[in-house]
């Protein structure tokens, strides 16, 4: 059985009640590839609205969680609260949280552990800065980010993790990685899965690409053997998101 193509939409801190209803309506009513798994991540405030209006065949993700189940953590939400609300996924380790909110590898790993324990799937983001790419340390950086998670979760956890390779220099910049650049890192991640987790995890884990994916570049990227889908930011707010969902058709 091949890996099911996976497309995530990260709305970031965008949207209004009516705007999100429109986007969700467009996705729900469009003709979409039944072989693609679709998960959209609105801001926390709109999670339930999205769940209510999105076709049940699609899933909803939070953009972040805290690593404790409940308690005195003002402003945070937990994996168990997501689950209680019918939200089955979360993004974790997005570069905007790593850089702007200063989240480190261990905190992201701890949040991943908490999500998995509560039965919430994780879209785990990793990726290098431009400086790290130019220094030739891309694979070291990505491996360090993934090792931190691997130390905290058991091997079974990887069944509920989708790895999103997102080079920071390509996010929101319009500068997409070339198909060769993306494939090279995806293959290195698969190799890491095989050596550090298991051959099953290497075979079955979806590794998706994120960074300025659009309706123009998605089909070429989707042809690469280790690219199992996309995490889409800006374009997930537009009608073109449907073309990206259908990139593998
Ligand atoms: C993202 O936010 O994960 C992302 C990839 O953004 P964009 O598609 O806008 O580059």
Automatic annotation (TrEMBL):
The protein's matches in PROSITE patterns, at most eight in alphabetical order, are given as: TIM_1, TIM_2
Q: Which terms in the Gene Ontology molecular function aspect does this entry carry?
A: triose-phosphate isomerase activity
Class in the EC hierarchy, top level: isomerase
**Which pathway, per its entry?**
Carbohydrate biosynthesis; gluconeogenesis; Carbohydrate degradation; glycolysis; D-glyceraldehyde 3-phosphate from glycerone phosphate: step 1/1
Q: Which UniProt keywords apply?
A: Gluconeogenesis, Glycolysis, Isomerase
Catalyzed chemical reaction(s)? D-glyceraldehyde 3-phosphate = dihydroxyacetone phosphate
Q: Which CDD domains match?
A: TIM
Q: What SUPFAM superfamilies is this protein classified in?
A: Triosephosphate isomerase (TIM)
Keyword Magnesium included in the entry's annotation: no
One GO cellular component this record assigns the protein to is: cytosol
Q: Does the keyword Isomerase apply?
A: yes
EC number, UniProt record: 5.3.1.1
User: Which GO biological process entries does UniProt record here?
Assistant: gluconeogenesis; glyceraldehyde-3-phosphate biosynthetic process; glycerol catabolic process; glycolytic process
Pfam families membership: TIM
Q: Which family does it belong to?
A: Belongs to the triosephosphate isomerase family.
| Quaternary structure (record) | Homodimer.
Stated name of the protein: Triosephosphate isomerase
This protein's species is Endocarpon pusillum
Gene of this entry: TPI1
